[in-house]
Amino acid sequence: MNHQPVEGFSKLSKQRKIDWLISEYLSNDRSYEQILQQYWNNNAELQKLHEEFSENTISNFYMPYGIAPNFLIDGKLLALPMAVEESSVVAAASKAAKFWIDKGGFKTTIINTEKLGHTHFIFNVESHKLLHFFNFRLKKKLLEATEDITANMRKRGGGILDIKLIDKTSEMPNYYQLKASFDTVDSMGANFINSCLEQFGKTLKQEVAENEDFTQEEKDSLQIVMNILSNFTPDCIVRAEVSCKIEDLKDDSGISNEEFAWKFKQAVTIAEIEPFRATTHNKGIMNGVDAVVIATGNDFRATEACAHAYAARNGKYSSLTHCTTDNGIFRFWIDLPISVGVVGGLTNLHPLVKFSLALLGKPSAQELMSIMAVSGLAQNFGALRSLITTGIQKGHMKMHLFNILNQFNATEEEKQYFVTYFKDKTVSHHEVIAELEKLRNK
Ligand code: MEV
C-alpha cells in the first residue's frame, strides 16, 4: 500500500493523530488504539505532563523501574534506582553490591568536573593576527558579553572557566575554534553552555566587523559555522574502585581465589587490548550506568557518546575498567567521564526522577557521578565474575525465563513449576517450550 505524506501532523489532536495512523498504517484495526490507551495514565494531569515532555506523543512507553540495594559507596549504604528493560541487570548489580559490602564497599574520587563547548568558525586570516586579537581584545569581550547569562551560575559557584583560541588550520583550511570550559555545578548545563556559546558566536562576528586591524576581505571571510557543547568531556571524570586481599575473593562457583583473580585480570586485559571484546565489556558497564542515568532523568545518549569517545581516546577502542593483582591485592576500577545534573531538565518535572533523587539522599551532581560510576563498575564485576566461572547464560536465562513464559501466556502455577524445574539447570528457550508443551498436554 502506498502511503500519503501528512501535512500538519503535530497540530492534530492526540485522537486525530491516532485516527490517522490507524487508517493510514494499521488497516483501520481499532484494537491498536487499545494498545496505546492501556498505557495512558488514569491521572489526566500526569498523562499530560508526560505528553508534554516530547512532541507528537500518543502514548507512554514503560520501562521496568527496579532497585539494586546494598551498595556501600564511600561509607554510605545506598539502594540504587535502575530503569532498564534487560533482565538480569538489576540482579547482577545487587549481587555485585552484596559481594563488596563486607570488603569495604566502593570508593570514589571526583577527578575533575570541567565541561566543554566550541564555537567553530572559518576565518581566512593570518593565525598570529587572530591570536593577537583574541588575547588582547576578544577574550575579554566574550566574558563581558556573557555576564548576564552567567550571573546565576556564578552565584552558584560555577561559570566560564576559560576560553582558548584553537588553530585547526592544519586539519581544515581556515578552521578555528573558540574552546570554552565551564563549571555547571549541579546542572548538566547543556542549555547554559549552548547559550554562552551562541553569544560567543555573535560577539566574535561583531568584534571582527568593528576591528580596524582586519582588512575588509578578511572580515568578509569570517563564517561562524556552529556553536555547540561537546558531549566528550574527558575532564569531567570520576574514578570508582574496589579492592581486597586476593585471599578474601571468595566465589561460590568452586574456583580458587587465586584462579579467580588471575582469570578476572586476564578478562580485563583482553578488553584493554581487543576492541571486539572491549565493545561488549563496555556495553555491560553502560548497562549499569545508563539504568541509573535514566532513573535520575539524565541524558543516556550523552553518557554513552562520552564513554565510548573516552574509550577510544588513544586511537584504539579499549576497556573503561582496569584491574591489578599486585602484592596479594585485587584492585578493580573504572575511570568514567560523565556529565550529569541533579537540577534542571527532567529533575523537577518527572515524579519518578524526584523519587530516585530522594532515594539517593538528594545527591549533588558529583555524588551522582560517583553513584553512576559505581553502578557501571558493579555491573562489569558481575558480568566478568559470571563469564570466568559459570558462563553468562546461567544467570541471564534464569532472569529471561519469565519473558519466555509470558510469550506463551503462562499461568502463575506454570511459572512456579518452571522456577523449580530450572533450579539447578541452565534455562534454554528450546527446553522451556518443550517442557511447557508436555505440561499442557498432561
Ligand atoms: C549483556 O547485556 C552484557 C554482557 O555481555 C557484558 C559482558 O560481556 O561483559 C554480559
Secondary structure tally, helices: 16
| Bound ligand species | (R)-mevalonate
- How helical, in percent, are the residues? 40-55%
Query: What would you say the CATH architecture of the largest domain is?
Result: Alpha-Beta Complex
Counted beta strands: 10
Taking the alpha carbons of the first and last residues, their distance comes to 46 Å
Apparent shape: globular
Classified in CATH, the superfamily of the largest domain is 3-hydroxy-3-methylglutaryl-coenzyme A Reductase, Chain A, domain 2
Q: Biggest sheet, open or closed, and with what strands and sense?
A: 4 strands, antiparallel
Q: Round the mean pLDDT to the nearest integer and report it.
A: 96
Number of domains: 3
How is the largest sheet built, in terms of strand order? 3-8-10-9
The CATH topology of the largest domain is 3-hydroxy-3-methylglutaryl-coenzyme A Reductase, Chain A, domain 2
Strand-residue fraction? 15-25%
Structural class: alpha+beta
Q: Poorly predicted ranges (pLDDT <50, ≥5 residues)? A: none
Radius of gyration: 27 Å
List SSEs in N-to-C order: HHHEEHEEHHEEHHEEHHHEEHHHHH
Pathway: Metabolic intermediate metabolism; (R)-mevalonate degradation; (S)-3-hydroxy-3-methylglutaryl-CoA from (R)-mevalonate: step 1/1
GO molecular function, one term: hydroxymethylglutaryl-CoA reductase (NADH) activity
Family: Belongs to the HMG-CoA reductase family.
Keywords: NAD, Oxidoreductase
